[in-house]
Write a structure and sequence with these properties.
The complex is a heterodimer of chains A (256) and B (64). Chain A is built from nine helices and no strands. Chain A is mainly alpha-helical and 256 residues long. In chain A, helix 1 runs antiparallel to helix 5. The chains are: A mainly alpha (256), B mainly alpha (64). At the A-B interface, helix 3, helix 7 and helix 8 of A face helix 1, helix 2 and helix 3 of B.
């Protein structure tokens, strides 16, 4: 595989793993406090919807002219990447609470335990919460997989990386049977944010008609440059604001 | 009726609209320079950190 393909696979793997960890926490909390079958049904339904969306959006994206595709995809990746990076920088600097999977699990389980359960049939609460969690976390991953894959003409590689991340998270989840609190989510988000911004800037500029010195060879320099800028911003924020206390608040969970 | 546009807005724009606007401005200036046959690759590496810094300063709020 080329360097660009490795970068694609790594970015998709990390992005997908982060979202999968977040979705796993919610599904686990619901499955343990409500009807597990309904939680799994909601998860399955969301995955089915995402699969249909992928089947519809994938061919539509790849049929776009390459210039338009790179401009649109570059813009989207830049917007997503900057949002990820902003949160990761604020969290790394202590200006925003870290994403605490154990706290989120406890809160989600407490809320689920209070909602009424129907004795028979589908537990609508469990179904709806799990469907929403998996669909929302999965949608961003779907966009990243499709845009990366379409631009590199390798949707298959992006899909394999995404599937590997989901299987890795599921495997870890089955092994520990608890929230995956020790996964370094913020570090992963930081890395993904840098990669998304670098690829977004590269493809967006090419789509807008610019040519990069050295073509794809400039990508590693762009990644390194944005990583250094981001680390400098972490130092800047640390100096500008006192750290916020842990654990994560409900508001920070909602923003994750 | 407003739920879908709002969901799309929140999904694409996220926490801070300034970053989305920054991306539009960055790619717009890049396109203008490229159309004029001028070097345009540098616009992103220059403007992206500027907009990221501006967004982070907004998140930090006013300094005491």
């Amino acid at each position: 595989m080329s360097g660009a393909e490795w970068s694609l696979a790594l970015s998709v793997f990390l992005a997908c793993a982060v979202e999968a960890v977040e979705a796993y926490t919610i599904v686990l909390a619901i499955a343990r406090t409500r009807k597990a079958s309904s939680a799994l049904a909601g998860t399955g339904a969301a995955l089915a919807v995402l699969a249909v969306a992928a089947a519809a959006l994938g061919p539509a994206l790849t049929s776009l002219p390459i210039g338009v595709l790179r401009l649109v995809v570059g813009g989207l990746l830049l917007v997503f990447g900057l949002q990820w990076l902003r949160k990761a920088i604020l969290r790394a600097a202590g200006a925003k609470a870290l994403h605490d999977e154990e706290a989120i699990y406890a809160e989600q389980a407490a809320e689920a335990a209070e909602a009424p359960v129907s004795a028979e049939g589908l537990d609508r609460y469990a179904f709806a919460i799990c469907f929403k969690a998996v669909a929302l976390e999965g949608l961003e991953v779907l966009v990243i997989v499709l845009t990366f894959g379409a631009n590199q003409h390798d949707v298959g590689l992006a899909a394999i990386a995404a599937a590997a991340a989901i299987l890795a998270v599921l495997g870890l989840g089955l092994a520990v049977r608890a929230p995956l609190a020790r996964v370094p989510e913020n570090t992963m988000k930081f890395a993904v944010g840098v990669m998304l911004c670098a690829f977004g800037a590269f493809w967006g500029a090419e789509g807008a008609g610019a040519s990069w010195p050295g073509g794809e060879a400039s990508l590693p320099f762009l990644v390194a440059f944005l990583a250094l800028i981001s680390l400098a911003l972490v130092r800047y924020v640390r100096g500008a604001r006192p750290p916020v206390p842990v654990p994560a608040s409900p508001a920070s969970r909602a923003e994750a | 009726m407003t739920a879908l546009p709002r969901a799309v807005w929140e999904f694409v724009v996220g926490d801070d609209w300034l970053l989305a606007l920054g991306v539009v401005i960055t790619l717009g200036i890049t396109a203008l320079l490229a159309a004029a046959d001028l070097a345009a690759w540098w616009v992103g590496p220059v403007l992206i950190p500027v907009f990221l810094l501006a967004s982070i300063r907004r998140a930090l709020g006013p300094r005491r």
